[in-house]
Structures are given as C-alpha cells and as structure tokens.
Amino acid sequence: MKKILLETKFSKIYMLVMIILTFLVIGGYYSYAMFTVTKEKSNAISIVTGNLTYELLIDGVESNTLTVEANSVKDFTITLNNPNNRLARFNFYYLGDLPSHVKVGYIVEDGTNTLPAEKGINLEKIDTIGSSNTYTIRVINSSESSVTVILGVQVGLDYNDLSLPENGHLFEEIISKGEIGTVVLSNISKDNIYDDGEDTFTTGQYPNNYVWYSGKLWRAVSVNNEEKTVKLVTQWPISAISYDNDSSAFEGSYMEEWLNDTSEDGFLGNLRDYQSFIVTDAKWNASTMTDASKPSNEEDGGTIVEDAVGLLNYYEYTTSYNETHITRGYLNNGTTSFLITPYNLSNLYYIYNNGFVAALSSLGKRGVRPSINLKSNIKIVDGDGSEENPYRLEGDNDTNLNGTKLNTRYSGEYIIFGTGDNNLYRIVSHESEGLTKITSAIPLKENETFKTITFGDSVYYSDTNTIGNFLNNEYLTNYVGENYIDMIEDSTTWYLGTVDNGASYKLAKYKDTNMSEYATSINAKVGLLRLGELMAGQFDRYENNTSYWTLTPYDQSTVYLIDTINIANYISVSNISGVKPSLNLKSNVIITGGIGTKEQPFILDIAP
C-alpha cells in the first residue's frame, strides 16, 4: 500500500488555522491555504498542498511501484512536476525490508551529488513556474526472484519537518561515470586511438582499457561508431580446445559451441545476466583472409555469423597494436589463442605466445579468449581502467555480500581458501546443483616453487593413483587445513572421458556430442579440471607459470596437460607436471567479506 505522509505538528496546524481565521476576519487579504492530501489512487501519487499540485511520475506514468525481474538491473526515471511557483520539500524513500542482495539507489552522474542525502532523496522545485526535477532511481536485484519496491513520499516546507517512518529506508548513492564507450575512449591517449570509419580501437602497449565483468578480466578492444557497443576480449585464455574437426569455419564448430554453451558449465551460461549486459545477436566477421587487411563486410560478401560470444578476427588483433610492433601490442599476453579467421578450409589463424600470428590446423588445441559486445547503455560506476583497478559495470559491482551463499556467485570470481602461498582459488562453475566448484588460481607451490608430480600408473584418475592419492590426503592436510576441510563436499563425480585428435571437447564429460550420457567417471573428494572446462587455462605469462595435469586421457598411455603457453598437450602418465586441484564446496558455504576480485577475494564461512 502507498504511504503519503504530511509531517506537521499539531501546534503548527493550530497556529496556521488561527492565522487563517484571523485573516478571514480582517478581510481575507491572503488566499486560503490548508495542507491536504487530495488524491490517492491505485498505483499513483498526486499531492496537493493548498492550491499547489505536485505530481510523481515513474517513467512518465503516475506510480509508486518499482518492479524488477530476478538477477537484473533496472533504471526508473522519477519526475516531480510543479506547475506553480511555490517551493516545497520532498523526501522519497522505500517501504519495508528487502533481501540483502537487492539495492535501491539514486544515480549520481559524473560523481556530482546534487541531492541532499541525509533523509533519502529530497526533491524540490527550484526553477520558475512549470518546472520539474527529474532523477534516476536504480534497483539492482541480484536475487533469484523478482522484487517490487514501494516508494513512500513526504512533503513539507522544510527538511526539518520530514522524518522517515519506522519502516522507511534510505536510498543508496550510486555513482555513474557514464556509458562505457564514452568513458573508455575519453581515458585513452589520442595516440592510442585508431578510428577506421566503423569502429574506434584502443591501441598500443599499455592502454588503461581493463574491464571486470562476471568474474573475469577483459580488455576493451573497440567501440562501434554507430551503435556505441563495446567489444571486449578476455585478458587470459579461459580454456584450451580444438577449434573443430578439420574445418576452419566458425559456424557449427566446436569453438562456436563452447563459447555459446548455456549449460551449467558452459561459458555463456556462466556469464552474469548476459541478456542484460551483452548483444546476443552480435555479428562476427569470420571471413577467410590471407593478410591482416580489413575483411569484407556483409554487403560485400564477407562471412558473418550471429552469436552472443565469438572471437577476435585477424584484422581486429593486428589493429590493436596500430603503429606499434606486433610483439608489443597489449593483446600479446605470452600465451597462445585462436582467432576466428580462417586461412583456408582446414587452417586458421592463432596468436602465438610471442605475439605473432600464424596459421594452424583446426585440430590443434589452443587457448580460447572469448569476445563479447557490451550494450551501449551499460555504464561504468567505478575503477580507472588499470589492471589493478579495472572499470566496474553497473549491476556487476556488488559491495556488500555478507551472508550471501557462494553458490549464487559467478565463474572466475576469487576466494580465499587454504593456507600460505596456495590460498587463492577461483570459482569454476555450479556443475552440481547447490554446490560450487572451485580450482586453485595457480598450480600449487611448495617452498615458493611449483610442485610437480607424476600422474600415476593409469590414465584414469582415482584417489589411489599417485596424483589422486596426494590430493585426497597430503594436499588436504598441508595445503588446505582444518579450517577449510569441512567446507568441502565429501564426494564429487569426476568425468574421465577420452578426447583424441579431431574429437569434441564434450567427450571429456559425455559419451557423445549430444550430451545425452556421461562418460566414465569416479567419485572422490578432490580432483582436477578436465580438458575444455572453464578456468582450465593459464592466467599469467609463460615466464610465471607451469604446466599442469588435467583429468582427460588422450589414449591409454597419455593424459592432457595445459602447458605454459596454454596449449593442451598430452604426455605419458609417468612424466611430471604441476597440480591444479579442483573440488566442490558445500551448499551452506557463505561469503563474509570481500568482493570477489583478485585484489579483494571473497572470505568464506559455513552457515550455522
């Protein structure tokens, strides 16, 4: 129910009435004015203060309810129309308690606060007759169900007359630095911007174009001049797979499937509220090229594929180091990854770890650096674009998550788990209902050196072979510790499907590419990531990392590992490699601190 409060003390009313009566007795030199609420109808608020009318509009319609769907952000335009020349003070607030992961706030553009905030939002007429004041109210709903916020309104001649009712709550201040395309380009040196007539690219070696979204660090590659959408690519490879079985076409490839998989452990399916953030029918130029020239567009016969997620093409990659040597472009990160561009029917371009581009068979298993297009209306609310302080997006900038279940969070986010040099982990997925799969952020270290170990005497992982025995015993005691062991699910299913040359990454988990049945599996408390799984990539340059084992056999004597430049190779189980453990955390693990970034990882506890 709407609540409209008119705060006047009895004594003030009494005095006012006496003054009015006096005026009437002596001839009525002044017009009659009595504070009244004259209209309150369904979903509308209109207030008359004496002979002055004030009207509250939400998105142009009289209303006092703000409804927002689950896991989404919605802005509402609040307008106070004043057709008269009397000044009055307004105080807006919301009524009743909301879940902790629902935030109601008002937008402060460019960091300038023009609204008195001590009692919520106070609106007043400050201009001439017929003026209005308009503000943006934002509701951020990170819950799993829709939410309705009811506004309450107070009006008076003085702010001191206004006080919140017991069930009223203040709005929060939400600073918006502006739409992402404008902010990114305005903070890049003119020497590091290149406009090709269709898109404006960020270029050079060290541009501040880092963006944090959905648990991953991205780079803002370009801004479309007409649509104002912003193309991002992940800073690091998220995994490593074959592009396809002897075909370089993007459409219908393993790569297209992997990028746009909306299942519980697919890339797109693990992006936060992707339908609100990204262009889901983006056009990806997958034309065959023999050099780095700009590829043909759709009208000129170029090969265009519509998808939510794609890869950069050869031209886009080379443009990123415009007038800079190829090895010094900011997209050269010391790892290998595929581009979307075919060289011929069975080979396509990829970025080598030294930054150069070469052609490779689609059978090769190289890194995957997903690319997306952020919608033009997405705004930056925090950060300066540096690696240490990347841009943060509205709706993805949670700051108070105390008590939130970890199983509601997103792939890639960081957590503190374990001890010493090995206490930084990342969320992988929510593959098992209610649980949160995690993996160490880097392979395990021992005495500041990467630990290496043989896989065992079989290509099939178990808790009794060499690496499995280590992970389910010594690792738990010496690397995890008793404070965290209770958080781990006692038994997780680990999939051991074989993937040979030309086979789909899906076979690491399923018996067939239709995902109808699971492959061979075992149960254990601790395991490893499999080939093609989220977060099965390298997240630092080759000089700073080590190769590590996966669960996935190539044949009866070799198992895949992710090497230092992010190639998925296979070696004998008797060889040694690094260890990147994976495990599931229980459904009652909650967040007690942090915001999920590398600099401020989540702190965990178990709910009572």
Please explain how this structure is put together:
The chain is mainly beta. The chain is 9% helix and 35% strand. Mean pLDDT is 85; it is low at 1-53 and 121-125.
Main attributes?
608 residues; mainly beta; 3 domains; 9-stranded mixed sheet; 7-stranded mixed sheet; disordered N terminus
The number of helices is 8
Number of strands: 45
Provide the β-strand percentage band.
35-45%
Structural class: mainly beta
Distance between the termini: 35 Å
Poorly predicted ranges (pLDDT <50, ≥5 residues)? 1-53, 121-125
Q: How is the biggest beta sheet arranged?
A: 9 strands, mixed
Number of domains: 3
Q: Compute the average pLDDT.
A: 85
Radius of gyration, in Å, reads 29 Å
Principal-axis shape equals: globular
Percent helix: under 10%
Helices and strands in order, then pairings?
Elements: E1 3-6, H1 10-25, E2 46-49, E3 52-58, E4 61-62, E5 65-68, E6 72-82, E7 89-95, E8 102-109, E9 121-124, E10 131-141, E11 147-156, E12 168-169, E13 172-176, E14 178-179, H2 180-186, E15 193-195, E16 199-202, E17 210-213, E18 216-224, E19 230-234, E20 239-242, H3 254-259, H4 274-277, E21 282-285, E22 304-307, H5 314-319, E23 337-342, E24 347-351, E25 357-361, E26 365-368, E27 371-374, E28 379-382, E29 391-393, E30 414-416, E31 424-429, E32 436-440, E33 445-446, E34 449-450, E35 452-454, H6 466-471, H7 474-480, H8 482-485, E36 492-495, E37 521-524, E38 526-528, E39 548-553, E40 558-562, E41 568-572, E42 576-578, E43 581-585, E44 589-593, E45 603-606
Parallel strand pairs: 1-11, 8-13, 17-29
Antiparallel strand pairs: 2-3, 3-4, 3-6, 5-11, 6-10, 7-9, 7-11, 7-12, 8-10, 14-28, 15-16, 16-18, 17-18, 18-19, 19-27, 20-26, 21-22, 23-24, 24-25, 28-29, 30-31, 31-32, 32-43, 33-34, 35-42, 36-37, 38-43, 39-40, 40-41, 44-45
